Every structure is written in C-alpha cells, then in structure tokens.
UniProtKB/TrEMBL annotation:
The keyword Translocase does not apply. GO terms for molecular function: 8-oxo-7,8-dihydroguanine DNA N-glycosylase activity; class I DNA-(apurinic or apyrimidinic site) endonuclease activity; damaged DNA binding. It catalyses: 2'-deoxyribonucleotide-(2'-deoxyribose 5'-phosphate)-2'-deoxyribonucleotide-DNA = a 3'-end 2'-deoxyribonucleotide-(2,3-dehydro-2,3-deoxyribose 5'-phosphate)-DNA + a 5'-end 5'-phospho-2'-deoxyribonucleoside-DNA + H(+). It is an enzyme of class 4 (lyase). One of its GO terms (biological process) is base-excision repair, AP site formation. It holds the Pfam family OGG_N. Keywords: DNA damage, DNA repair, Glycosidase, Hydrolase, Lyase, Multifunctional enzyme. Residues 196-387 form the HhH-GPD domain. It comes from Cryptosporidium parvum (strain Iowa II). Belongs to the type-1 OGG1 family. This is DNA-(apurinic or apyrimidinic site) lyase. Its EC number is 4.2.99.18.
Amino acid sequence: ILMNQIKFESLNVPREELRISKCLPAGQSFSWRKVSKDSFVGILGHRVFQLKELENDTLYRCLYDGCSKVIKDEELDDYDDQEIENIPLKKNKVIKDEKNILIPNIDDDLCKRETSIKLSIFYCCNSTPNEHIRHYLNLDFNWENESKMAELEQPIHSLSEAYMNWNEADPCISSSPKGIRLLNIDPIEALFVGVITANNNISRITSIVKNMRKNLGTFLCNISDSEIVSCNETDESELDIDYHYFSFPTSLQIFNNASEEMLREKCGVGYRAKSIISISKELNQKFESDRVFVDYIKSLDYSNATLYLQKFHGIGQKVADFVLLSGFGFSAAVPVDTHILKYICKHVKFLNNTSLSKNKYVMGAQFFRDKFRLLPGWAQLVLFSSSVLK
C-alpha cells in the first residue's frame, strides 16, 4: 500500500492536553524521529506510527502494522526468531521474512517454503492502532481516580487542570511547556533504556536505542521519508532515502543474541553492556516470559517495586524511578537528576547541588512528593522538560 493512501486521523485532543513537539524530544521516549517541523515517526511494538501536530489537534496514522487482525481477550505468546516447527500452529500469526515478504498460512499449517532467511513471527496486538496510540499517549487517563488518591477537595478532569493544581504548588509551572504527557512506554523497553540513561544524554541514548533495535530487534519494514513527508514540509536533503524500522528487542532476544562485546562495539552502550546482559539473563532464568515479569512488578506497591528493581545489576534509585514512572506508570516515582536537584535545592536550604548522595536523593524525592501531591512523577516530568527544552 502506498503511504499517501494511508490517511491521517484526528486524536481530537487540544493543544493544552498534548503537544508532541514538547513530549517526544524531552527524554521520555527515544524511539521517535522528527521527519519535519511538526511530524514524528516512531515504533510502538510491531507498529510504526506517524504523528503530526496541528495548531489545536494532533493527527496520527499507522504506517505499518505487524498484525493480521485484532484478537481480543487472548494470551498471546512471543515466538520471535524461533524455528517454524517450534511454533504452535493453532495460533493466529503472520510470518514475514527480513524483506517483508509474507509467508502464507495455509490450512492451519505454515507454508513449507524453504528459506534461509531469518523469519519474524508477528502476533496480533490486542488493540486497534487507535487504541494503541491513545494508550501510549495516555489520552484516556483516569484523572478522577488520581484526584481521590491525592485527596483533592475537587476532582480534576484533564491535564490542563492538573497544570493548574501544580501551579498552585509552585507558580513556576506556568512557564513550563504545556501539553507534556506521561507516556506509556513498553515496560521491557523502559527497563533496558533506563540502564542506558545512566550518565548519558538524550542524543546519545537515542543513538544507542536505534542500534539495539537494528542489531537485536525484529525487522518491521523500510519506508522512505519522501513517501511520508512532502518536500514543502522539510529540506529534501534531510530526508532518508530508505529508513529501516525494527522493534525493540525482548529480553529473550538480548539473552540469546547479545554479548558484552557486541553491545559495546555495535550498539555503543559502553560499560552498561554488563548490566544489560546480566538483566536479560536474570529475567529469562527467573520468569517464564517478559509478560510474567511485568505483571509481577505491577502487582507490587511503589516501595517494593523500586527495591526489587535495584537488585538488578546497574540499577540504582534513579534508574528504578525512571523505569517505574515511564514503563509501569508509578506516579509516586520521582527520578531526581541534576536538573531536578537544582530545582529542589532552591527550596530545601540544607541541600546543595554539588553531589547526589543516596540520602539526598531520598529527601529530595520526598520533598517533591510532599510539594506536588497530585502525580508528583508527572509534575517532575513537566519541570524536567522545561530544563531540557530550553
């Protein structure tokens, strides 16, 4: 199908509720490419989306969907990169090779076409593209429930009302970028990306994540930028002729295919390679699947979840908070980095921003929770975005 035949659809969300130009580059997710002044392309699971920012709305379209159809209420297992004979034949599946050529499913059995090309098995997501992107952007967030948890006298119903609440706690919120949403990042992606964020910057993290997808993830498709962006939207010299999209690897893909040397040389992760290998090994030895691990972490309260994550090699308090906030939606998680530490030190006189000890981290994060009772992790994200987007 030609890209220009895939129409954009409206998310019906006003600018004060979502600004992708502020959300996507601000250090939450590292899987989006800016392809024009108001348009981004990113990978969510086995789907490739394009988002376009308008004056008072955001449009989306799904450029590539690795699902054959939507299946509801069914446990879907991940059989990426396994041999054909190891895949249960009664599962609904779409199988494609690295050239994105469909290998048909005939009479409930896989076509026995001989091929030496690596196969990728794409399982149907249990959501439509619209549901998928709305969930990722947190557009159906339960504000009323969070209002109760924060014990607010009057419930809030939108992000703009949350900004008003935070502004009462600190008027500096009024000068922060509007429309900053807490994204629902894939938990496994958040876990490994969290390790990569340690002592790193946004540009380099983005490069490492891209390399991990390319070397360890599942090939999805290749799309020329000229197919999705018109010449009057951007400088033609900045367009990629043929950009290849890959899913973020599962822990099993990392465990089976990565080595410390490979992660350092091909992905550029540096000293973090040891942690990535160690975590992938532990997940595959202790849990039946990534989904089981994710469900286990979600079953814990914030305190126990952060303690559990810190048992992994290379994960301290800040990385644990990053993972829990972006990947698991723990709003009590407040990642304290140098930007947030400077903010906290302006309000807590006995703290200084020369170093970030464990005790200082704990006190600073608790100060933030006390100051911003409503979704402190989200409020932190707004202030963090204000710093990095200057």
